[in-house]
Structures are given as structure tokens and as C-alpha cells.
Amino acid sequence: MRIDLMAGATTASVARDLTPNPTILVFDSGLGGLTVLDQVRRARPDASYVYVADDAGFPYGRLSEATLVDRSLAVMERLVSLHRPDLIVIACNTASTIVLPALRQRFPMPIVGVVPPIKPASEATRSRMITLLATPGTVARAYTHDLIETYAGQCAVTLVGAPNLARFAESQLAGAPVDDATLSAEIAACFVTGDDGRRTDVVALACTHYPLLLGRFQALAPWPVTWIDPAPAIARRVTQLLGAADRSVPYAGTVLGTFTSGSGLTGALRASLDRHGIGSIAVEAMPLGLQ
Fold first, then answer.
1. Any catalytic annotation for residue 207?
2. Out of 40, 47, 92, 178, which one is annotated catalytic?
3. Is CATH 3.90.550.10 the right assignment for the domain spanning 22-114+232-283?
4. 3-state class of 213 per DSSP?
5. 0.85 surpassed by pTM
6. Which of 9, 116, 130, 202 could link 206 by a cystine bridge, Cβ 3.0 to 4.6 Å?
């Protein structure tokens, strides 16, 4: 089962007038933000979209916090100048928990981020045994532990920092999926049985890449659990900030995909991007060392 709850989104407290035909920029370190893009497009099909994958910097977990802040600001300066978005979605947990304050200080438009969905997980569980499946950096971050203390104090929370899942998701989109045994080993620690017989019944996905693999997670899980994907909550927050879709405006059409490297743009990946509505691709070359 898949749950979407409002607690997956975070924004600056900015009120906006309803914006006809807005331009929405969705930003991620790689391709995980496609899961967010899909949900936001369903909510505002009349908007124009730019999807940005900072693939030159992927994965963000290997960067120091200072480097990530500097890079995100530099990349976003160029993107805002080029596309003049009405709203920005930071569809990356790592960037959201580290960079949002600096981005909101620099840019005037609303910026929506994503946080580990601890609160909805604690509300959904019946066994009071939940798992947060995240990157190692998100698992270690004090922000995540503060969320657990605030919202899940009555739960047994298993933190699983999966070192390879984001890469596996990107490989699958590029037409080279990992085998079941490898993927199963990566998520095995999510499923815990307590001494009293209680079992994990909720797994919260704290990386936007992970829903790209959700169908395989469900098939490989040793027992059924509720999987929480924060992307629909982000889409609802976008609608709150920009207003509901104007149904009198024709569907906006395809999305512009922008990459900061583009080195992995294989034919199979381009086909996957097309299935997510990305009909044209541009490369705004920005190597990792260029700030």
C-alpha cells in the first residue's frame, strides 16, 4: 500500500497570488526527482516545467555540507537566470535538509523541499515498528534524529542507510537494472521482527530515488508493509502555493530536462525520461569543481 501525507513537504512561509501558467523548476542531484515531477505535473498540468538533474554533482551524499551549499547556490543562480521560475521544488532530501535556508535567503520565489516522512510513518503504524529507508547521510544527520524524537518517540524506529539504492534506481532508468538478490540484500534490514512478535509495518522512503524502485520493493518484501512516498504531499503543497490548475488552459506539454553533465544520457535513459514527460533535453555544463 502507498500513503501520501502532507508531512513530506516543507516550504518557506510565503503567500503567493494565484499564478496562471506558472513555470515550476524541479531540482535534484540526479533522477530521483522524477517521482516528484510526476506528482506535481498531475496537480498542475497547465504549468511549464524544467527538470534539472545536477548529475555532475551526483551523489550529493559524498559532498561536504559547505561544498553542497556553494554548489547548489551557484547552479541555482544560473537556472533562475535562464528560466525565471515562479516556484522551485528541491526534490532531494540531502539538499533539502542542508541547502534550503541558503536558497530561500538568496531567491524570492517559494521553494518547496522534502524531508524524511517520519511523522506520517508514526501516524500510519499499528505495530509501532517503523523503518526509515534513506541514504547514509540522511540517516546520520541530526535533523533526522530530531524528527524521530519529535514525532516518533513512541515507536521503535529502524534507520537503514542504503549506500547503493540511489545508484540502483538510476541504473534501472538507464536500462541496466540490478538483479533481485542484490536489491533484496540492500533493503533486508528494513524488515524487523521484535522479541514480542511485532514486525515492521511501515517503511518511509527518505530519498526521492527510492519510489522509482517501489514496485520491486513490494515484490521482494518478506511481508506486506505500508510504503510512504512524500511526493504527493509535495504536489499538494505546490498547489497550495500557486493555486489549483486552470482547467481552461490547455495542457502545457512536455518538460525541458536539463543536466549539468549529461555524460550518462544513453538511449535507454532518454526513453525513460520521455516516459516521464521530458521531451527535450539540454546540457548546462557545470563540472563539480566549477562554483
1. yes
2. 92
3. no
4. helix
5. yes
6. 116
Residue pLDDT, tens place only, 244-268: 887 776 666 779 999 999 888 889 9
User: Cell 535534484 sits at which residue?
Assistant: 28
Cis geometry, peptide bond prior to residue 59 (ω within 30 degrees of 0): yes
Q: C-alpha cell of 13? A: 512561509
- Confidence check: pLDDT of 169 > 50: yes
Provide the sign of the torsion angle of the four alpha carbons 100, 57, 137, 167, taken in this order: positive
Predicted local confidence at residue 101, as pLDDT: 94
Instruction: Among 2.30.29.30, 1.20.1250.20, 3.50.50.60, 3.40.50.1860, name the CATH number for the domain at 118-229.
Output: 3.40.50.1860
SS3 category, 282: strand
Check 129, 132, 207, 273 and give the catalytic one: 207
pLDDT tens digits, 39-80: 999 999 999 999 999 999 988 888 889 999 999 999 999 999
Cβ neighbours, 10 Å, residue 17:
7
Quick check: helix, strand or coil at residue 30?
coil
CA distances from 111 to 96, 98, 104, 272 (A): 10, 14, 7, 27
Average pLDDT, the chain: 90
Q: What are phi and psi of 113, to 5 degrees?
A: -120, 180
Where does the chain hold its CATH 3.40.50.1860 domain(s)?
22-114+232-283, 118-229
Q: Is 155 tagged catalytic?
A: no
The full DSSP string for 70-118 is HHHHHHHHHHHHHH--SEEEE--HHHHHHHHHHHHHH--S-EEEE---H
3-state helix, strand, coil in the chain (%, to 5): 40, 20, 40
